[in-house]
Structure formats: structure tokens, C-alpha cells
Amino acid sequence: MAEPEPNPTSDKSPSGVRARTYALGVVCVVLVVLIVGYGELVASRGGSIDAILLGASHMPPSAIGVLIILLFGNGILRRINPVLRLRSGELAVIYFMMVCGALLASFGLTAELLPNLVGVNYYANPSNGWVTTFFPHIKSWLVPWDPHGPERQFVARAFYEGLHFGEAIPWAAWLVPLAAWTAFAFLFFFLSACLATLVRKQWVDGERLTFPLVQLPLEMVSEKPGDRFLENKLMWLGLAIPILLHTVNGLHKMYPAVPELRIFFWFSEFLVDRPWRDMMWTPVVVSISVIGFSYLLPLEVSFSFWFFLLLSRFQDVMGSWLGYTFINMPLYPAREYIGYQSVGAFVAIVVSTLWLGRSHWRRVLARALTSTRDRPDTDEFMSYRTAFWGGIVSFALMIVWLSAAGVSAPVAAFMLGTFIFVLVLVLSRCVSEVGLLMLQPVFRPMDVWAVFTTRASLGVANLAPLAFVNAIVMRDPRTLMPSFLDAMKTADGVGVRKKTFALGIAMAIVVGVLAAYLIELYIIYHRGGLQLNSWFFLANPPLYWNEAKAILDGPKKFDIIGPSWFTVGAAFTFFLYAMRTRFWWWPFHPLGYAMGAAWPGMVYWSSFLVGWACKSLILRYGGVRGYRLFRPFFLGLIFGEFIAAIIWAIIVAWLRVSGPMIPIS
Description:
Blueprint: H1 19-43, H2 61-80, H3 88-105, H4 110-123, H5 130-133, H6 154-161, H7 171-206, H8 212-221, H9 233-254, E1 264-266, E2 283-285, H10 288-295, H11 299-321, H12 336-356, H13 358-369, H14 384-404, H15 409-434, H16 445-452, H17 459-474, H18 481-494, H19 498-527, H20 534-553, H21 561-582, H22 590-595, H23 599-655
Antiparallel strand pairs: 1-2
Helix pairs in contact: 1-3, 1-19, 1-23, 2-3, 2-23, 3-18, 3-19, 4-6, 4-17, 4-20, 6-19, 7-14, 7-18, 9-23, 10-23, 11-23, 12-15, 12-21, 13-14, 14-15, 15-16, 15-18, 17-20, 18-19
């Protein structure tokens, strides 16, 4: 923990962050990319709940681990030469550079991009008919193999099976497709930054969202007089609990004679008769860090996430009792009626956000479209004018890119518009308001398309390039926009201008993408994808081509079920907003309804329940003073679980043993 510095940089001057900070940040980004690349591809064996993923969340353990090392080194520098040490704002800038680098090396880009560009060629065979159905509709500049050639070409075979003696990595084959996809990704990142700039003031100053993922890093780098986070005994007590828990379970994995402290159950273990057994998968997971985050949330938010998960399961039970024929959402663990309620809820949340923030949007438009003396954007990532017009231009260029890839312009506009302005916007709010560590909805833009017409109406010319986009970007949208918003919130906390953070993040994106390409391609070709993470290389790539083939071969009749449940979801969400604006005591939050039955809600609902119960009891019997007293304890729960994840990731990678389940991503 740093001591107060003689000259704190509280004036948000550009000199608050020195040039060497960016240089050190770039080094840390490369280090984090290396850690995530090896940890998630080689050491980790699965995709989420059964694996320790070091870069897949918006508070990645890899970034927290390197930040701890920086704080330790900073403490040494403080004693040797205080002038050389990093200030709190500089540490925060480096941290968010690492957050972006970690995400880019994981679900945010390369871990999804690389396998999906070659998976269709490797898994194609005469029985699935992909060669004749899809290859003619794949542009040669999209992939590192020849779409006019056969399946299992060298670039794909070596990618999955590893290089044979004397073979070299086919770098040249990757240059054009990686350049093309990097251009698309950078347009998306810039558009995300524009959108984050436009909504920040409304979310931070207008609605005062809690930004839970910011609170622990702020405590770690804080230099404010009186802050003694690392000296708080309750913090250390909270930190010890997850470390002890995961140590015992890790030893059980290595030595089965050691008893296990179970943190994972299935409801189906106890509910074996109908109608209860017809519920969608319902795990009970004890995530210590999510319990800690739940304590930081407003009670109605944490309550809604476990309540609406159970409400969705009640709908399953009632459907089974009434003899309803269950249909699942494509590629997601959710019933169709739940999925389309979520679609309606997402759309209603966007509409409500625009309406409730209408005074803010008027100021944004005035600043973007006219010359005005009012300057509400002096301390943002960029000016509102730049964000507004830059967002429009980047969105248009993304449509042009998809059109060049073979998607018709109207379809491209619909898919991108739905993805960015509905999915990404609402999911970013889930991070800013709820602190969700991982993001996965229960629908994609293609599912929204089915509200208005059949998926088959897209045709093979659209479905082929959209399969790549679905796989790489849209199914697991762990995008950078939530981290942009967290960075801007942190800038306020450490007294540094937001443009200073923007510069560091821009450098991190460029360096992180290039480093991730080089590091991960090297790892993959030398080890073979078949021996690496089962989700990225085995399970995920075939999903979207199998789905596209099933759409083309399946029924073409329009189904009214989707639009009907979409209407129900939108209407109910508008009702929730109306009640929230009229009654302060209303306990149901629209985000809980929209996301409660999605994968993060499924995994974390029980931990939200525990965190909600703890905060409710403390507030009831201890009031605000009790809440503040116990806050370090719950931050310690978060800190301890992340430290345990880092330690066990090292052990798993070093000793090649199975580690405990630590549900943080």
C-alpha cells in the first residue's frame, strides 16, 4: 500500500502520468498476453466454470497478479528512491492496459478468432457437406486457407495436429486474413470507445452506477491519507477464507484422501422426479468473489439476479406440468420462451435508457451537431463530436467490411446494429451496475432476426460469413466497452484525465493484438490445437457451421413463438421500469430479468443470494456504519479468491496437475 505522496496529482493535469508509465505498461501487456496465452490454451482444459481462465473476465486474474507485483516493486522503490516510484494514477493506467491485453488474448479476440478461422476447414468432411455448401461463399481474404481447395489443408492440419519435423509455421498464409480481421476489430473497438464516451456521464453522474469491478483495484493503488486497505484485519480475514477453501480443494484434486469442500452442486442431484427434473440446468455454485461483489451492489440488483433465475425455473416446472414441449435457444443453455423474453427485455432496457437519459442525450446532440459554449465533454475519452461522428463512420465502415465479406448491406446493418446498440450496450451496463465477471447472453442478433422472419431467409450467402462473426464476436461478447467505462470511472478516483487512460488503452490494444497473434500462433502450431483447450479448439468451431447447415436443411415456416415471448419480455421490462421510477422500495431490477437466466446468472445466482442475505442482515442490524465496517471483509473475499486463482494457475501450469474449480470467469 503506497504512502501519501508529497505532490498528489489531483488536478488531472496531463503530466500526472509520465511517459515511462506507458513504456512499462506495454511491457506488462506483453507479459499478461503471454500468461493468458499459455494459461488458457495450454494449462486450462475447459471453457469456463471448470477452468481457471486468466483473461476471460473484465477483472482478469492475470492483470491483478501483475498489479500485485508492481505494488511490491513500488514499495521497494519508495524506500530506495521515492522519485522513481509509480503514482496511483500511473498504476491505474497500467492496470487497465493489462485488462485490455488480457481480454484481447482470451475471449475478447484471438482465442476465439484463430481457431474459428481454420476450424471449418479442419472439421469439414463429406458427411457434413461443408465443402460444397459453404466453401464457395467464403472469401479468400477471410481465412488462411484456400476456399477453392479441399478440407484439412496444411495450414489447418498443422494448426490442429501440430507441426511435423522440418515444417514451419505458415506465417505468410495468416498475414492477409489477420490484417482484415484486425481492421474489423479495431473499428469495433473504436466504436465501443465512442459509445462508452457518450454514455459515461449519464451512467456515472446521472444514475450513479456502482462500478463494482473498480472498487478493489482502486483500494489497491490508493494513496489517499487514511487509507490502509492492506492493514485492515477484516480484509485479511476475508482474504484467508477463499485461499483456505481452494487450497483444501486443490489438495483433494492432487491427493483424493484429502476431504473436499464442495462448492458445486446440481439441483438435479436432489430433484429427480417430474416436473422438477425438466428444469433447465441449475447449478449451485459457491463463488466467494461474487459473494463479495454482491455486497457492493444495491440490494434490488443482487436480489433480482437470484430471484429471476428461480422464476425462470418455475416457468420450466409449470411448462412441464402443463405438458409444454420444450425448445431450447440455439447455442445457449436456455429455453426458447426464456430467451425471447430476454430479447424483449434487452430492447426495452435500451429504449428506457434513451428515455430516462433524454436530457443527457440532448446535451450530447447539441455538442455534436452545433457550436455551443457548453462543454460537458472536456474530460472524456474524446469530445462528444468526435464520439458521435466517429461512431457513425466506424459503424458504416463495419457494414462495408461485412458487405465485402458477402453479407448483404441490410443484413449487415441489422446484425451489427442489434449487436452493438442492444447487446453490447446492455451487457456493458451489466458490468458497470452488477459487476458481472463474465458476459454471455442467451441470444445473438441472428435470434433477434427470427422475431421478424425465418433464419432460413438469410440464405447461405449470408449464413457463411455470419458463422465467422457469430463464432468470433457475437456468441460470447466479452468486449472492451465495459473496461473502457471502468477505466473512466477509475480516472475520477485517482485524479487523472480520461484522455490519459485512453492513450494507454490505445497502445495496449495495438501491442496486445500483435503480441497475442505471435504468441498464440506459436503455441498452437508447436503443440497442436487438439492437445489444447477443449472449448476453443474442439467444441466451439463446429457449432456455427452445424447450425447454419441445420437452418438451410430445416423447416422454412415462420414461428410465432419468438415474437410472442419477445412482446411479453419487452412489456414486463417496461412495467419494471415504471414501477422503479414511481416507488423507491420496488425490489425488482430490469437487468435481473434480462440476464438472470443467462449463463452468468445460472452460475452465480446462489452466490448473489448469499451476498444479498449478508448485506441485508448487516444493514438491518448495523446500518450504514455496519456496512462500511464490513466492506473490507467482503473486498478481502474478492481479493483472496483472485489470489487463489493466480496461485493455482501457476501450480497447474508448472506441475501439469488438475486444479480446483475457482468460478471467477
